[in-house]
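Our collaborator T.R. sent over the components below with a one-line note: 'Predict the complex.' Nothing else. No constraints on interfaces, no templates requested, no preferences about which chain binds where. So this is a plain run: every listed entity goes in together, and whatever single assembly comes back becomes the starting point for the next discussion.
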Amino acid sequence: MTAQLPLEGIRVLDLGGVWAGTFSTLLLADQGAEVLKQENQFVWQPNTRAVPGPNISSQMTQAGPGWITGFPNSEPGPRPWNYHPMFVSLYRNKRSFTLDIRNEKGHEILGELAKISDVVIENSAVGTMEKLGVSYEWLKELNPGIIFLRAPGYGLTGDYVSARTMGSHLEGVIGHQLLRGYRNEGPDSNSAIFSADYIAGTQIAFAVMSAIWERKKTGKGQFIEMAQAENAIAMFAQGYMQYAITGTEPDRVGNQSIYPQESPTGIYPCKPEGDGDPAQGKDRWIAISISTDSEWKIFRTEMGNPEWAISPQLEQWENRYSQHDELDKNIAEWTQKFTDYELFHKLQKAGVPAAPVLDASRVPTDEHVQERALYSPQTLQDPIGEFPFPTPLFDFPAANGGIRRPPVAMGQDNEYVYRELLGINDEDWDLLEAEGHIATRFNDSLM
Amino acid sequence: MTGPLTDVVVLDLTQEIAGPYATKLFADFGAEVIKVEPPNGDPSRKLGPFPSNLADWQLGSAPAEEKHLEKSGTFFYFNTNKRSIAVDLESEGGKEVFWRLVDKADVVVESFKPGKMDDLGIGWEAISSRKANLPLVSITNFGQTGPYKDYKGTDLVLYAYAGEMYSTGLIDREPVKMYGTAALVQSGSAAATAIMGAVMMGRWQGVGQHVDFSITDSHLVGVDRRHASVMGYQFSGRTTLRAPASGTRLLGGVYPCQDGWVDLDGGGARFHRSARQFLGHPEWLEDPKWDDPSIHQNPEMIEEFNAYFYVWLMEHTKREIWERARESRILCGPLFTIEEVFKDENFRERGVFQKASHSFLGDFEFPGRPFIMSESPWEYRRPAPLLGEHSAEILDECAFTTKEISRLAISGNVGVRV
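Returned assembly:
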């Protein structure tokens, strides 16, 4: 007999958005929870189904970076919000229903769902839930076992409660924007990254699972507050620890290791594709991390013991660290003779940590990605064709996990939620539809 | 009140960053985490920051590395609330200790290279035949299977290959990574959910299993842009290139100001709603030409805007700018230094920092709770353990007699502090 996934039987009411919230409920869904994503045809939740809004013109899908405007076959399709590249892969294993929770009836129906749910998750700016009348007190009265998690940027108290933020802004506030990037450039050279969404998403899932574990013992639900800025600090722990125990500010190190023993460590150019034009994505790079003195000796041998590298002094990391920039220049001359994959295998087989810097186009064909079946072909509800989609981060071999349901379209599970869970009859269904609760498209007024 | 996981025993063989961070989350929320270290310690004990400054190291005047085993800031952070037993798993005595610990455990977590546990005779087969409902979670660079399973990884190497590094940085330079070991910490955080799921299946269903957690996989399908760049490529054939967040948008990006930098995003729809309020209704901005939505893509208009805006920026501090941004609901983050975060009243009053007292590192404050649970809160119970600090008491709990303990200590199979 196959075992059940850990969270089978747990129902999560998902009021979350952007990547942090959407990723968190994805992880819970992958572990077997029934995630009910609430959507509203009248409300464009920022960055949850598409950017910049539901009205994607054909022109917008023809150019621009793949991750923002790369729609299926470069067409917006009949319902573009159902396949935006920034979000579509985060909707596997979930269910979606629509409900206008801004009015009394919608609020009441949300309450009915809360009664039969185990977990409610939201990560909107503070004020949104207050306006909607969604509080722990309300939920707890309806369902004493409920676990309610809120994850605003800076928490529910303090000076910054009203701050609007995405992951990239709060990384500035907790120091990351000054710590990352090239050593000799200002932070205005930084790309926008969203590492805070990754850690918040995973830890919302961990927090909720821990609360489920606790509830199994005590029968009690609880309230969880995660300030995403505070949560993200862990990623930069060594910088915080340096200040904590030495009182000094950590340096920006670029691609070098924060641990001087791991020198040299960097990104080096490889033989490019064609003319190597980076504006066409044809540049190629390899990451190399010499982590120990013995790895340096192996690396030196792999390079053919060039003159500049044979000094016995360099066998000690202190010297490799103090001459890092000079070593980088010499290493870069050597790496350019190879393709990134050639060098990857050559160095790794000899015992030196290295890997190509893979751009998105080269991920699906990589041997590791293929052999571990990290992408799996899925067909979406709208007829846009079959495409490979990312699979869960890990599997439980004793249970049947993977992609149990392809990415869900907006309102795809209205039948399930309204008829099966809430037991609504045809008459009520028609009324709810007429009132705008039940829908599978965003309202024309938003277009 | 105590954490939610007080009834969970984690047998923790992980080392370095990712695994220890995953098990730290368990320890911080109440689990009993028994850290099994080799007799010479988790290698991260040799990683800084150290209280003696880096310059001393470069000059060779710092004491020998071994003396720093208890002074690593990295080791401290990733191992709070755990207990340490130093065990030589190569030895027969060490293996006997391992099996007694297995009998107590709800989960075994390890980060050796694939095959190492089997070589030691303590791999999945052996574990499951000893205790069928005990899960084993392996956290490795490239997973237990696949063509690269024996390859080495570091934060840079793993992020380069699996994360969205290629499109991070400037187009005419090399791609650039995040700070420190951020990618490994992210993977550790994801691994905590894998361990939790495995523990649930073990306890609730009596199911043991070997969970293969690959750090690279957790980024290849992960959420910091990689999932989106790969999906966008599959859909459209277009890749994502390196570009800075600043310089090409109206009121968007990282800007210098009087005392540092601010990250702002007040363009697009937000501009029409809020920019005038944000900038204090200056006369130049009253011109209706700023209401035209097409100005956002117009380099000349952006330049004209910036000519006024940079003057304004230099007249304001990052805190003033953030306050105005909050009032006018514009996305914003001042770029704080670590020192500024430590001294920030808001973070202090919210209780972000935890006081610690450590026999080698002294008294200091470090970042504490990652989130707040109303009924089963995060708790700081003890600093990161000294190497083998708890060997004797853990052996005692495993019903080894005093005589057996001295035998194990004398043979060197277990490191016991005296």
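Summary for T.R.: Chain B touches chain A through 163 residues (CB under 8 Å).
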